[in-house]
Give the backbone structure.
Amino acid sequence: MIQMYDYTLAYVLLGLYLITILGVVGTVISENRNPLKATAWVLIVVFIPFVGLLAYIIFGQDQRRLHRISRRFYNRLMRHPRQLSLPRRLIYHTSISHERYPLIHLLEESADSPLLQVDHCEIYAWGEEMYARLEQDIVEAQEHIHLQAYIFEEGELLNRLEPLLIERAQAGLSVRIIYDYLGSYSVPKRRWAALRKQGIEVYAFLPVAIPLLSSTVNYRNHRKVIVIDGVIGYMGGMNFADRYLHGDNLGPWRDTHFRLQGAVVAGLQTSFLVDWYSVSRRVVNMERYFQRYPAPMHPSGPYIQLVLGGPMNPWPTIELALLAMIAQARSHILIQTPYFLPTETINTALITAALSGLRVELMLPERTDSRLTSLAANSYLDSLLSCGVHIYRYREGFLHSKLILVDSELSMIGSTNMDFRSLEHNFEIGGVVYDARLTQALEQLFEQDKARCNKLSREAWLQRGRAERWGESIMRLFSPLL
């Protein structure tokens, strides 16, 4: 009798499990996701019992319908950048090529991104130089300091910044910090609590009580944005970690970061305050945080459109920008990215550009901090090499820079890696820059980096062992999930 009861219970549990699996598969299919991503989840859930279902619960659920900020509040924040946008009648009198007008319109429509002027731009390729400049700006701040990064890490750099921020807070400035809960997991809660006691407002983005059982663990804030007094802004790829000062087991970390002034800072401020409201649910006095720049009356560049990417956007804004930039190229495309797991559309666009006779150069780190991600990334290289893409592997440390440079006059800067996670899951910020001088300066930096690279030849690449190729092919199946 007891044995029959055990069998009945087992059949009931098995039936419930199968019904759950069918429900998950039906949900994945009905959401009309990227076919590659949907197929990967179906395979995982069906062929990896129990563990696959748990992985879907944690990483796979579609949270794009969650709205974390009201449209009314968003419009209030966007009022300032919109007022500073270069009017259409003036765009035609700038140095921007008419071939770029469709891209400007695309970003205005899909990303609500006004065209903003940059009065001054400084480029930083190494952490120590950027942090020293930032520390100077913090010391000289008069009104407020807003810091946001994916990673704040315990160590020398945080020890340097902390007393500066505390001193400014005690002097009466508003000091605010947004950190990603998982990216900054190494910083103990007591340290954040100590900063709050000193008058600094600190919030985590999407806290996860139990990381292995949370459906929001897959959605992280990868933006790096700093705004000081509404007149100075920083954006790029650098976090707050000692690896940018002294390197790590991969060697020195090479990244690209930007210090900006001008109307563009209003766009960075809007990005920060959108996320600030999302994490704190506090409405700030917005007039206080936007410098009163005069409305643009004459064309004078450079110009930039800030593109906020994230899983809750109605359109894949940054991916659309990348595709448009690649499609508009007439001479060459230069790319730096630490992780290369492109969507099918971007990969096809790069192949099309190379086969059309354009010079396409892709620079990746020779070693990365993720073996599985490297295997998946390597699976894309053979087809790129076969169609004439020039691939360079940075050997003197870890390349963490994220740049797209087109025809010596158009560039994308910011926090976005060329992978599924940045383009579909993370909250990112990119800046499409319309300026020949700035783009050419970045191309010079790219050329300098090539001296630290080994160029990959297809002949040598084909010498990889069969086991290595199989590993790459298997991991490619999971690339939409990495």
About this structure: The chain has a mean pLDDT of 86. The CA atoms of residues 122 and 291 lie 20 Å apart. Residues 2-60 form one domain.
